[in-house]
Amino acid sequence: EMEVTDPSWKEAEVELYTIPAQSSWFLWDDIHEIERREFEEFFSESSITRTPKVYKEYRDFIINKYREDTTRRLTFTSIRKFLVGDVNLLRKVFLFLEHWGLINFGSDASLVEVEEKHVAKIEQGNPAGIRVTAAPNSMRPITAPPLVEERAESGLKLPPLTSYSDVFSDLKKPSNDGLVCGHCRERFDSDFYEHHKRVVNICQKCFKNGDYGENNSADDFKLIGNGAAAVWTEEEILLLLESVLKHGDDWELVAQSVSTKSRLDCISKLIELPFGEFLMGSASGRLISSVPTEDENSGHHSSPSHPDGQEHRETEMGEEKEDLVDEDEPLAKRKRVALISDGDTSLMKQVAAMACRVGPSVTTAAAKAAIAALCEEASCPKEFFETDDYTHSAPDRFDSPSPQFADGFASHVAVKTILKLSLFHRADGDKDTDMEEQQQGGKEGPQDLPVALRIRASVATGLGAAAAQAKILADEEEREMEHLAASVIDQQLKKLQSKLKFLDHLELIMDEEERVMDGVKESILQERISVLQYAFRGGITKRWDHTYVK
Amino acid sequence: MKASGSTGWKGPVKFRMPTAENLVPIRLDIQFEGQRYKDAFTWNPSDPDSEVAVFAKRTVKDLKLPPAFVTQIAQSIQSQLSDFRSYEGQDMYTGEKIIPIKLDLRVNQTLIKDQFLWDLNNFESDPEEFARTLCKDLGVEDPEVGPAVAFAIREQLYEVKTLIAIQNVASARESRLTKKGRRGSDHGSASKASGLSMDLVKLFSFKSSVVRKRKDLDVYEPVVDLLTNEEVDALEAREERHAR
Q1: B window 104-123, beta carbon within 8 A of A
Q2: Where are the residues of the annotated region Disordered (chain A) (predicted)?
Q3: How does pLDDT run across A464-522, given as a tens digit for each residue?
Q4: What is the C-alpha separation between A296 and A533, in angstroms, rounded?
Q5: Over A196-229, what HEC string results?
Q6: Cα angle: B174, vertex B177, B181; to 5 degrees
Q7: Chain A residue with the nearest C-alpha to that of B62
Q8: Nearest 5 degrees, angle CA A151-CA A155-CA A161?
Q9: Are the beta carbons of A135 and B143 separated by less than 8 Å?
Q10: At what angle do helices A403-423 and A451-537 cross, to 10 degrees?
Q11: Which residues of A touch B194 (CB under 8 A)?
Q12: Helix, strand, coil share (%) of chain A residues, nearest 5
């Protein structure tokens, strides 16, 4: 709840302070019943020092003092010096205000405010620096207290930042470029052993000999095939991206996840990738609010409907990665990577999750594109979809379904699809024969349909359903927004009207005053005239001549 | 009985410490055979007197003092308690009485200087709570400081109270002699009756404010100082010299 402390017309001077809802009884100009009950001693008129006026002064002073700086927690000791009176009574008032949240609202009472410590005044001789002594557990004082540095502990512990030189300094060293053994300084013939922590590699010979170098043991080294460092398969790239997103800057963990590649390799590969640095820089954030263009997205989102093993996905990703130049691309990439790494959920769930995170227009387009893509790939699905009246008009219908209809419709479609599919058997058949057979009609005997198609079809329907839902939500949101906008405009108009009224009123008053002034002016003039007349009659003209003539 | 502090004349109450807990300040300073034992603590007068001996024995055992200290300690405590009890028979005036309390003490390496007003007859007052707040707000780490502050406050309260009690006895005697029918308390002028000095009366009047003037703020502000070891030693040496 907010309390306006300066309830004036001017917008500029309004200050707002937060107090709890149950303290809304508080008023600056008055003393509430709650206060009267609590502090009977002030209201019983039994003493000079305890009057309502005094209570109000205490109270107002304390609250104002707090509000001078609401970020710091006001302590009793800091204000008691300002107020005259029994400190116990003052403390009672202070505690009362704190209890009701009129001061120190939201300040954590358990926080130790190191800044609040009073700096010592110089007493005698050499000034003594403030030293914090460790609190002794026993009752006896410590004779030589150790100097303890105290820092207010921040709640957030940030991971240690790696500097560029930390990570890449080894890259600069020539010895590693040429793959030279860290110990015997000879070039590697074939496989070498890499130290899992430091950038020290030793050749096979040295490893066998046991010459690990200082402080290293056999376990520290990992055998790495010579050629392995250069080639990155799609799986590895995918793993790399996933682990970078998960672990951020922690290259140890990243290297562990991508087990076949060393830490350096990971980092260098990441830099090589067009968007790698972008990823590194913001590896902690996953989802972006901006929605990439529809075309791109539809192209990307159609690929999840290829579930034929990881490689397939990654090949696509690999291909698309090489192509991209765009800035929007990496965003879509990251989104997808993040989702895929959620990994073990079913495809439908993934699709649903995707639909939730992405805008409704996007999912609509995605659904359309999915179905289009499916239809493009082989004509059989097209026919398959076409045989069913509902599904054919699905993309169009998505633009304006009614809520119940959409749900029922989607489930209806799904059921139908599954029924149809179940009539066909699994696996890869000859596409031509399939087409022919399917053209004869969907309900005929066991027909072969590739598993992929089946799944694709169901996914497409799922997407469709999601799209429908999304569209509905979008419409609702829009309506809501319009409504709110209208009400805001309404309010503004009302404000304007009342202001105009006020100004009109003012004008009226001003006119009235003007009239009055005119009247006064006239009467004064009349007086003057009469005075002059009188003067003339009396014969006093000399002085007046000048002004009169003029 | 409503616990609302002192709200004017409530009628006479038996002499006691005007704090939430009736604890008597006891100070010990015993020198014997070259050893010196100094201590200050609060005692609950409703404890049976047998406790005194128990306390003395335990103290000597804990601090490994020579056994002769036991009787000395017990005697000292006992006499202070009897002092307190001698006032207990009297009636106390329970109207408001605001006195200044001054703190100027050193506990190990912490020096505290402070001054504030205390209503001598506010029976809700709590020196221990006040001391705790003081230490917490000022970030005093040494756990011995709080109790020392509380003790200092108690001591001063006790002192003033006994002074008043003595005064009352004297004036009571006087009034009986003069047969003016004045009761054992002083009514006198308004300031006396309300237990305030004239300045305070002015402060609480309708026209002025209870917010302290700037020039007085320094006096009423608590000052905490942390000394180095050398300074502590120097001070202690000085104190010893003064004591002799």
Answers
A1: 108-109, 111, 116-119, 122
A2: 289-329
A3: 888 888 999 999 999 999 999 999 999 999 999 999 999 999 999 999 999 999 999 99
A4: 99
A5: CCCCCEEEHHHHHHCCCCCCCCHHHEEEECCHHH
A6: 80
A7: A139
A8: 90
A9: yes
A10: 170
A11: 47-49
A12: 60, 5, 35
What's the token pair of residue A52? 């309502």
Strands B98-107 vs B110-119: parallel, antiparallel or unpaired: antiparallel
Amino acid at B94: T
Q: Which residues pair with residue B43 across a beta bridge?
A: B24
Token pair 């006032």 is at which residue? B87
Contact status of A84 with chain B (Cβ, < 8 Å): yes
d(CA A98, CA A8): 27
Pair of tokens at residue A167: 């990570």
Structure pTM?
A: 0.42
Rounded CA-CA distance B43/B40 in Å is 10
* C-beta separation of A310 from A270 below 8 A: no
Q: Do A120 and B226 touch (CB under 8 A)?
A: yes
For tokens 């359903």, name the residue.
Answer: A465
Global ipTM: 0.79
A 10 A CB-CB count for A446 gives 9
Q: Strand, coil or helix: what is A112?
A: coil
Residue A229 tokens, joined:
């460092």
Q: What pLDDT, in 10s, does the model give residues A515-538?
A: 999 999 999 999 999 999 988 888
The secondary structure of residue A461, as a DSSP letter, is H
In a mutational test of the B interface, the residue from A36, A42, A47, A76 whose CB has the highest number of chain B CBs within 10 Å is A47
SS3 at position B185 = coil
